[in-house]
Automatic annotation (TrEMBL):
Keyword set, alphabetical order: Aspartyl protease, Hydrolase, Metal-binding, Nickel, Protease
Function as written in the Swiss-Prot or TrEMBL entry: Not known. Could be involved in the processing of hydrogenase.
Protein name: Hydrogenase expression/formation protein HupD
Lineage: Bacteria, Pseudomonadati, Pseudomonadota, Alphaproteobacteria, Hyphomicrobiales
Listed Pfam families: HycI
Gene3D superfamilies: HybD-like
Swiss-Prot/TrEMBL GO biological process terms: protein processing
Similarity field: Belongs to the peptidase A31 family.
An example Gene Ontology molecular-function term: enzyme activator activity
Residues the entry annotates as binding Ni(2+): 20, 66, 97
Superkingdom per UniProt: Bacteria
Length: 230
């Protein structure tokens, strides 16, 4: 019986908002760089949140790539391990996918199937408010260092990855072909044809303003229950 620990390499985030897509792009690059390994799964987790819980429950070693607001200089990469991972996923939430993923880890722990080792590789975003935009240069430059660190971290745990002789072509991405990095960047319409920051027709006639503190707003929404005072 094969007792090799199971590994999940997970990219989370949202490709549609510039550097929010770092986690997805890093997972795609991981899949392209390394040969298939019987113990390793690579998943584009997107913004699925709690729907990822079964994947987490089936995992011994978890590697997560994500864009994280550490309040550090833009483009800074940071490596977080084990018990510190849930804390840093919620350090300053940029979007609801981080709330959802914290819940995923909590649910897995509650159900008794929590990874024995965790690694979070996060990059401080440069730009988020660019709908349909791609990674900024500083963030894209951290993909290769992120893969290097993940490879060495897994090797210390006995999981030795083999690099492909040639990286996979764009058409062999784990994402849809239309969202592969090159196609996504080259296919973006000009700003004159597609506004980058939302459409006033659906943003309360131009009166919409984003929350000044997303963390507080999320907490307030989650606190509303059947017996809560409104």
């Amino acid at each position: 019986m094969d007792d090799t620990p199971s590994v999940l390499v997970l990219g989370i985030g949202n490709l549609l908002w510039a550097d929010e897509g770092f986690g997805i792009r890093a997972a795609e690059a991981f899949h392209s760089r390394y040969a298939d390994h019987s113990a390793v799964r690579v998943i584009d987790g997107g913004t699925q949140g709690v729907y990822l819980v079964q994947h987490i429950r089936e995992t011994d070693f978890l590697v997560v790539f994500d864009a994280i607001d550490y309040q550090l200089p833009p483009g800074t990469i940071k490596f977080i391990q084990d018990d510190e991972v849930p804390h840093f996923l919620g350090v300053k939430k940029m979007s609801l996918h981080q709330t959802g993923f914290q819940e995923v880890l909590a649910m897995a722990e509650m159900l008794g199937d929590y990874p024995s080792r965790l690694l979070l590789i996060g990059v401080q975003p440069v730009e988020l408010e660019d709908f349909g935009g791609s990674l900024r240069v500083e963030v894209k430059a951290q993909i290769e260092p992120a893969l290097d660190f993940a490879e060495k971290w897994l090797a210390r745990l006995g999981i030795n990855l083999q690099r492909r002789s040639e990286r996979l072509a764009d058409g062999e991405t784990i994402a849809s072909i239309e969202l592969a990095l090159r196609a996504y960047e080259e296919g973006r319409p000009h700003e004159a044809e597609a506004f980058r920051h939302g459409d006033d027709r659906v943003l309360a006639g131009g009166r919409f303003a984003k929350p000044s503190d997303l963390q507080s707003e999320d907490d307030a929404v989650l606190a509303i229950g059947p017996g809560a005072v409104r």
